[in-house]
């Protein structure tokens, strides 16, 4: 669960075992003190000796003392938090739908041309160190350009995309995974993290179910970010017949959810740019673990200060 903290030195949490010991000792002291009070029948004199402190205040300050010890014990184990930092390198595969439905003009001048422009704008926002590949999604998906840092070549590959028959979403994911395998190794020992950005405006019509390919991506820890593109009223005229080409938002969302990506919708040029911007923010950063011991120590200090004030309060003889 996300709310359970991680620790750099979990073996040091043994210090928390002292808490029940201290609580038991405190309860024993209270019990012994109660017996002494029963034997002291002159309560007026007893009140003048020990003062008129309320029982609940004593319990509160003791609780603050114990809380400070608990938080200090957690701090001793070096708790870890998460922070986002820019990725230095990555492999991004742009999967762009080129099926006949992309000729719909509900997004002017048409879906495909608007998608090309948005993809190029997205390309320019990526760091120069990112390798980018392009996959054409149709009935027979293909790698238009393998992963490269040559932005000019990638831009020309996007410009060259043309309409084709069919929509094979599952095969397109498989093809994108093959494109990831073509990424340059680089000088680092570990491969750069890979992500797939898929834009589609239709329903899977060819090849295996998209869920099967999504499972492969999940197993390889490659998230897929999807953009459901177009309006619900979009249409194309094929073979003299008008067909509705509304995006299959449910399928695309299931792909993103299954692989740890994000699903967004875009029904016009501006929202498409926003969708790419949102995805760019997600893939441009990675979560890293960092020590947050100082935060825990500050909380422990707060509890300790309250407990110390309580000790002063109980020790002082206030005028009556």
UniProtKB/TrEMBL annotation:
Database matches in PANTHER family: LEUCINE ZIPPER PROTEIN 4, SPORE GERMINATION PROTEIN
- Write the record's keywords in alphabetical order, separated by commas: Cell membrane, Membrane, Transmembrane, Transmembrane helix
**Which residue ranges traverse the bilayer?**
12-30, 60-77, 296-316
Its domain of life? Bacteria
Give the VWFA domain ranges. Answer: 91-279
- Pfam families reported for this sequence: BatA (PF07584), VWA_2 (PF13519)
UniProt protein name: Magnesium chelatase
Q: Which organism is it from?
A: Tessaracoccus flavescens
């Amino acid at each position: 669960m996300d709310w359970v903290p991680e620790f750099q030195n979990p073996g040091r949490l043994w210090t928390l075992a002292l808490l029940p010991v201290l609580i038991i000792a405190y309860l024993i002291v209270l019990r012994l003190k109660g017996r002494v009070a029963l034997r002291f029948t002159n309560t007026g004199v007893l009140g003048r000796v020990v003062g008129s402190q309320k029982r609940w205040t004593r319990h509160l300050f003791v609780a603050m003392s114990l809380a400070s010890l608990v938080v200090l014990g957690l701090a001793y184990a070096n708790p870890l938090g998460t922070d986002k930092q820019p990725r230095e390198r990555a492999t991004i595969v742009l999967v762009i739908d080129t099926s006949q439905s992309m000729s719909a003009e509900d997004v002017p001048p048409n879906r495909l041309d608007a998608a090309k422009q948005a993809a190029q704008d997205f390309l320019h926002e990526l760091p120069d160190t990112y390798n980018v590949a392009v996959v054409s999604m149709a009935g027979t998906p293909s790698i238009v350009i393998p992963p490269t840092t040559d932005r000019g070549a990638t831009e020309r590959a996007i410009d060259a995309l043309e309409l084709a028959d069919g929509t094979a979403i599952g095969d397109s994911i498989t093809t994108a995974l093959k494109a990831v395998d073509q990424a340059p190794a680089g000088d680092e020992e570990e491969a750069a993290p890979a992500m797939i950005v898929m834009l589609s405006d239709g329903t899977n019509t060819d090849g295996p179910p998209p869920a099967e390919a999504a499972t492969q991506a999940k197993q390889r820890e490659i998230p897929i970010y999807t953009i459901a593109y177009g309006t619900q009223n979009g249409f194309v005229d094929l073979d003299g017949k008008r067909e509705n080409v509304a995006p299959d938002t449910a399928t695309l969302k299931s792909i993103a959810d299954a692989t740890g990506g994000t699903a967004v919708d875009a029904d016009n040029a501006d929202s498409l740019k926003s969708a790419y911007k949102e995805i760019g923010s997600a893939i441009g950063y990675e979560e890293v673990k960092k020590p947050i011991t100082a935060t825990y120590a500050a909380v422990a200090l707060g509890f300790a200060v309250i407990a110390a004030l309580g000790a002063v309060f109980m020790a002082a003889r206030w005028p009556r």
